[in-house]
Amino acid sequence: MIAELRTLGIELMVSIWPTVDKRSPNYPAMLEAGHLIRTDRGMRTAMDFMGDTVHFDATNPSARKYVWSVAKKNYYDKGIKVFWLDEAEPEYSVYDFDNYRYYAGSNLQVGNVYPVDYARTFYEGQQLAGQKQIVNLIRCAWAGSQKFGALVWSGDIASSWSSFRNQLAAGLNMGIAGIPWWTTDIGGFHGGDPKDPAFRELLVRWFQWGAFCPVMRLHGDREPKQPQVGHSGGAACRSGAPNEVWSYGEEVYEILRKYLQVREGMREYIRGLMKEAHEKGTPVMRTMFYEFPNDERCWEVEGQYMFGGRYLCAPVLEAGQLVRKVYLPKGCKWCVFRDGGQKGQADYDGGQTLEIACPLEWMPVFSRQ
Question: Which of 118, 212, 319, 341 is the 20 to 30 A CA-CA neighbour of 310?
Answer without folding.
Answer: 319
